[in-house]
Amino acid sequence: MQAKITLLPGxxxxxxxxxEGVKTLQAVGExxxxxxxxxxxxxxxxxxxxxxxxLPDESLAACRQSDAVLLxxxxxxxxxxxxxxxxxxxxxxxxxxxxGLFANVRPVKIYPAxxxxxxxxxxxxxxxxxxIIRELTGGLYFGQPQGRRDNERGRAAxxxxxxxxxxxxxxxxxxxxxxxxxxKKVTSVDKANVLASSRLWREVAHEVAAExxxxxxxxxxxxxxxxxxIRNPGDFDVVATENMFGDILSDEASMLAGSMGxxxxxxxxxxxxxxxxxxxxxxxxxxxxxxANPLAxxxxxxxxxxxxxxxxQEALDVEAAVDAVLAAGHRSPDLAGPGEAAIGxxxxxxxxxxxxxx
Length: 358
Ligand code: IPM
Ligand code: MG
What we know:
This protein is α/β, with parallel strands linked by helices. The model has no long low-confidence stretch (mean pLDDT 96). The chain has helices at residues 14-32, 45-51, 57-64, 88-98, 122-125, 165-180, 196-210, 222-231, 243-254, 295-307, 312-327, 345-357, and strands spanning 2-10, 35-40, 68-73, 103-109, 129-135, 143-148, 157-160, 185-190, 216-221, 238-241, 264-268, 274-278. β8, α7 (196-210) and β9 form a beta-alpha-beta unit. Magnesium ion is lined by residues 247, 251.
C-alpha cells in the first residue's frame, strides 16, 4: 500500500523521537513492500518562534491531505508564561478540533521486563492491561463561554463543561467496539453525583451499553476511579471518560507502567484518520542529548499501522521487535535501574529496526 504521513516533530525531544518513528515506518515499508511518504510541518513552540502561530495554516492543510499524522511533543518552559498570548498547547487543541479527533486512545500495558520500574508493587501492576478512551474535542477544554470575567468585585474567570448526546454516544461506541476485541468490559467514568453534564453522560452511556449486551458495563465516579486505578488496576479493561477526567486519569494510569517513555496514543476521527503521538511531553531537560526513549513513539507507529492502515501483522511485528529489544536487556536511561547500562535514542531505534528486519 501507499500512504501519506504528516510529521509534526514539535518541541524538545519531539524531533528526536519522531526520527525513530520514521525509521520504524521505513523498515516496515521495506519488509512488507509499502510506501510511506512523509511531509514535515511546524507545530507548537517552534511554530510560534518561526511564524508566530502554534498551528500554521500550511501545517493544518498538510495534515488534512495525509492519511495519518505522527506528532512528537509540543511545549516547554520557553513558551509557558500563563500571560503569553499564544501558547503551543493552543496549536494542539486546534489540531484536535479541526481534524475532528474526538477519541483519544491510551493503552497502558506492563512489560514483564519493566514491572519493577513502577513505584507500585509488582503483584499489583503485573496484571495491568487497560485502555483509556478519552473524549478529546468537548468538555471543559472547548465549552463556551470561556475566559476572564473581571468585574468591580475583583478578577474572575470561567470554563464551561458542555456535552451533547451525539458527542457522548460516539465516544462510548469507540469504547464498546474496542472492548469487544479485548476482555469485554467497559468502565464509564463521570461525576454524576454533582455535574449535569455527567448525568447526561451516564444516561447516554447506559443506552449505548444496552446495544452491547455481550460487554460487561459499569459506571464509577471519577474520584473513586482514581483510587481503584492504584488499588486494583488489573480490574480495568476499557475506561471511557470525558476530556478533563481523561487527561488526569491517563497521567495517573501511565505511572502504573513505571515510565511514560513506553506509552503510545492515538487520537481518532470518524473513519480511519488518526493522529499518533507518545503520551510523554517534550522533556526539555533532556532535549538534544540523544537520550530520550523513542519506544513510545515507535509503539504509536504500531497503533497507526493497526488502526489507520489496517495492517495488523505489521503492527504486531513492530510490537514484537520492541518486546525483543527489551527482553534482550536494552534500556534507555529512563528504564535503566541503578547501575544498569543505558543506550541512546538512535541506538534504541536501530535495534528495533534490526529486529523488524530479521
Ligand atoms: C495531553 C496534554 C494536553 C491536554 C495539553 C498539552 C494541552 O496534557 O495530551 O494529555 O491537556 O490534553
Ligand atoms: Mg495530559
